[in-house]
TrEMBL record:
Family statement drawn from the similarity comment of this UniProt entry: Belongs to the sigma-70 factor family. ECF subfamily.
Record-annotated RNA polymerase sigma-70 region domain positions: 25-91
GO CC term (a single one): DNA-directed RNA polymerase complex
Source organism (scientific name): Persicobacter psychrovividus
Listed name of the protein: DNA-directed RNA polymerase sigma-70 factor
InterPro entries linked: RNA_pol_sigma-70-like (IPR039425), RNA_pol_sigma-70_dom (IPR014284), RNA_pol_sigma70_r2 (IPR007627), RNA_pol_sigma70_r4_t2 (IPR013249), RNA_pol_sigma_r2 (IPR013325), RNA_pol_sigma_r3/r4-like (IPR013324), WH-like_DNA-bd_sf (IPR036388)
Domain RNA polymerase sigma factor 70 region 4 type: 122-174
Alphabetically ordered keywords of this record: DNA-directed RNA polymerase, Sigma factor, Transcription, Transcription regulation
Pfam families: Sigma70_r2, Sigma70_r4_2
């Protein structure tokens, strides 16, 4: 269903039409949001829980959506913030240095039987997990989701130039990790 039709349903006065609009919204974006989050947190259960949280927030705060950006961009921003907050909480809750969180996530990549990929893809996933969260986020959206820098900037709330710099630094670090691994 087209984005503007989903928005029309969600803004409707009747509860039944709004409910249908939310169903359409989930059908349209749930899988993309799940994989966006999963690339950051690795674990299926964590990604699944966070995806649910994202859609609860979307439902609860839809009245704050002003239409200044695409609905997809607004949802991705919520998803990105949820993933980053989850990683921050995890670090703070257990007083884990960022390096240990990276190590834990990299270890999960090795343990996940339903993460497919050949050796090169697994090495790439591990290299991405070693990036600082902001670079990881920008890299994933540009490389895997093929988003334009303007969309990424809107999602992460940074400048286009800042996003380009984050992507460039991420690529250089990944290349270095892959060469030295």
């Amino acid at each position: 269903m087209e984005e503007h039709l989903i928005i029309d349903h969600l803004q409707a006065e009747e509860a039944q039409k709004r409910s249908k609009g939310f169903k359409y919204l989930i059908e349209a974006y749930q899988e993309r949001v799940y994989w966006h989050i999963r690339k950051m947190v690795v674990d299926h259960d964590d990604a699944d829980d966070l995806t649910q949280e994202v859609f609860i927030k979307v439902h609860t705060h839809f009245h704050q959506f002003k239409g200044e950006s695409a609905l997809f961009t607004w949802i991705y921003r919520i998803a990105s913030n949820e993933a980053l907050a989850f990683l921050r909480k995890k670090r703070n809750k257990f007083f884990i240095p960022i390096v240990d969180v990276e190590g834990e996530l990299i270890q999960k990549v090795d343990q996940q039987e339903y993460l497919d990929g050949d050796e090169i893809q697994l090495r790439l996933k591990k290299a991405i997990l070693r990036l600082p969260p902001q670079q990881q986020l920008v890299f994933n959206m540009k490389y895997f989701d093929d988003l334009k820098y303007e969309q990424i900037a809107e999602i992460v709330g940074k400048s286009v130039g800042g996003c380009k710099a984050n992507y460039h630094h991420a690529v250089k670090k990944i290349e270095s990790f892959l060469q030295n691994d």
